[in-house]
Amino acid sequence: MKIDLHVHTSEYSRCAVSTEKEQIEAAIARGLDGIALTDHGHQRTQSYLESLNKKYAPFKIFAGVEVHTRDSYEDVLIIGVHGMAAYNGYGWTYPELYKFARQHGGVIAIPHPFRYSDGVKSDVVSFVPDALELKSKNIDPANERKILALAKKLGINTIVASDAHVTGNIGLYHLVLQNSALTEAGLVEELINGRYDTNTIQ
Q: What are the boundaries of each domain within the chain?
């Protein structure tokens, strides 16, 4: 199962160019089997995601959000957690966000590490995420060695994802899950257990 875990849409991310419909249709055209919609500070409701999945079946659309924390001023990806729609716009600290995701069975990943500074300011030692993003359209290849070193230090996996803000970037980096994830719980299980390969089609 080919999946892109980091996708933005113009409806909810001011920096995005392409609409939700355009991004989904581009992902299908590129041969992906699913995406996570990870707009900035906005998560779609479970009922809305269910309607999208019904419309585009068998293509899968998963719950996601990219949150900018108010303590470390860094971004965090949360995948597979429902119920965050009620907290849209909430000024999360990284520990608060981490605990919420853990309590609700989600995946925590740090997107584009080292993008804004030479270090990762979030307390990833005390609150270890599930993965670091190693490749995306917003990751400088020069930082990949540092990302790999930090992942090794923390004992966690890396992921790749497009961080697509425009249709042309959808799926350029994506994961290939060893088992099909038909539910949020199934996706979380595959990611937590590292049952995937990384793929780049640039």
A: 2-200
Question: Would you tell me the crossing angle of helices 20-29 and 46-56 to the nearest 10 degrees?
Answer: 40
Contacts of 95 (CB under 8 A, 6+ apart): 71, 123, 126, 127
Topology adopted by domain 2-200: TIM Barrel (3.20.20)
Strands 2-7 and 131-135: unpaired
Q: Residue 25 is encoded by which pair of tokens?
A: 């249709």
Query: How far is it, in rounded angstroms, from Cα 57 to Cα 51?
Result: 10
The edge-to-edge listing of strands for the beta sheet with 196-200 is: 157-160, 131-135, 107-110, 75-79, 60-68, 34-37, 2-7, 173-177, 196-200
Q: Token pair for residue 58?
A: 């068998």
Q: pLDDT of 111-125, one tens digit each?
A: 999 998 888 999 999
Q: What is the pTM of this model?
A: 0.94
138-184 pLDDT, tens digit each = 999 999 999 999 999 999 999 999 999 999 999 999 999 999 999 99
115/164 Cα distance (integer angstroms): 16
